[in-house]
Amino acid sequence: MTIHRDAHALEPDIVTDFSSRMSYGAYLDLDTLLSAQHPVSRPEHHDELLFIIQHQTTELWLKLVLHELRAARAAFDADDIGVALKCIARVKHIQKTLTEQWSVLATLTPTEYAQFRHFLGNSSGFQSHQYRAIEFILGNKNAAVLRVFESDAAAYAELATLLREPTLYDAFWRHLARTGLAVPHSTLERDVTEAHTLDPELLALVQSIYEAPEEHWTVYETFEELVDLEENFQLWRFRHLRTVLRVIGRKAGTGGSSGAGFLQRALEHTYFPELFAVRTWTGR
Predict the structure, then answer these.
(1) Measured at the alpha carbon of residue 269, what is the angle toward residues 268 and 274, in degrees to the nearest 5?
(2) Which of 47, 53, 87, 259 would be a feasible disulfide site paired with 68, CB 3.0-4.6 Å?
(3) pLDDT > 90? residue 4
(4) How many CB atoms neighbour CB 68 within 10 A?
(5) Residue 101 and residue 99: Cα distance in Å, rounded?
(6) Which among 88, 54, 55 is positioned nearest to 71, based on CA atoms?
(7) What average pLDDT does the segment 202-219 reach?
(8) Are 10 and 76 in contact (CB under 8 A)?
(9) How far apart are CA 38 and CA 187, in angstroms?
């Protein structure tokens, strides 16, 4: 086989002059993005860059998750369930990436992390306002959490707004009520600043749909998409818990939480309680 010396020559139409054209780096603002990693350990520890990039990339994905969930909620408000499902489908793919990403951080050994952990002070993932915003829009409302963000005016304002707004789940049920489904008033008129809790009247409606899915197929399909969404969040939380246990065991969190114990309790929360409770009651 003959190997030509010009096998890797540039194709003639590839653009090389960016003096007046937008480049890849300019479009993505890579100068800003790639200069945003500032290790604080002294002397600088090799593995701190991994720790920073892991959390920065997580925040980028969370930004997109929140963008898509807001769009899904708006689509329910506009009675466009197809667009809402498309947004939720995208979130599900992002969630898989976020969950798998924990495997990279899990390469950090206890000894390696211990050499720079004390430089982090009280900074903690608990203080991620984007993660809290996602929790709020999905229904895990908790006004007390706002205290954590009192020193960040923009984050506080965003979360305070989301606290007062209907959740994705609220928007879904309001959409269904507008289509003529007999959604109970207890659901439609609930206090949206509080976390949604199991509504027996709503559970009865959900059960009726699960027992006759062919009569409300799109609603039934959306139920299962929301179940996927929550299940993926639980898998992400579980992988977070296991990574914490692997790296720091049961030490307290840098932000003051109990660490693994706090993460373990988070696994007990459900965004869409009726969609999980119905599994127990359907077919009895």
Answers:
(1) 110
(2) 87
(3) no
(4) 20
(5) 5
(6) 88
(7) 96
(8) no
(9) 47
Cα distance between residue 211 and residue 24, in whole Å: 52
Alpha carbons within 13 A on the beta-carbon side of 127: 14
User: Can you tell me the distance from the alpha carbon of 58 to that of 97, in angstroms, rounded to the nearest whole number?
Assistant: 9
- CB-based contact 130:62 (threshold 8 Å): yes
| Burial zone of 228 (CB within 10 Å; 0-12 exposed, 13-18 middle, 19+ buried) | middle
Look at residue 6 in the predicted model and tell me its pLDDT: 60
**CA torsion angle 183 189 193 196 (round to 10):** -30
pLDDT(8) > 90: no
Cα separation, 233 vs 244, in Å, equals 16
What is the rounded CA–CA span in Å between residue 224 and residue 222?
5
Band the pLDDT of 172: cuts 50, 70, 90. Answer: very high
Among 40, 32, 224, 44, which residue's Cα sits nearest to residue 120? 40
Reported as a pLDDT band with limits 50, 70 and 90, residue 155 is very high
Written as one string, the DSSP assignment of the chain is: ----TTTTPPPTT-----SSS--HHHHHTHHHHTT------SSPPTTHHHHHHHHHHHHHHHHHHHHHHHHHHHHHHTT-HHHHHHHHHHHHHHHHHHHHHHHHHTTS-HHHHHTTGGGGTT--GGG-HHHHHHHHHHT---GGGGGGGTT-HHHHHHHHHHHHS--HHHHHHHHHHHTT----HHHHTS-TTSPP---HHHHHHHHHHHHSGGGSHHHHHHHHHHHHHHHHHHHHHHHHHHHHHHHHTTPPPTTSS-THHHHHHHTT--S-HHHHHHHHHTT-
Q: Which of 96, 98, 85, 64 is nearest to 168 (CA)?
A: 85
State pTM to two decimals: 0.94
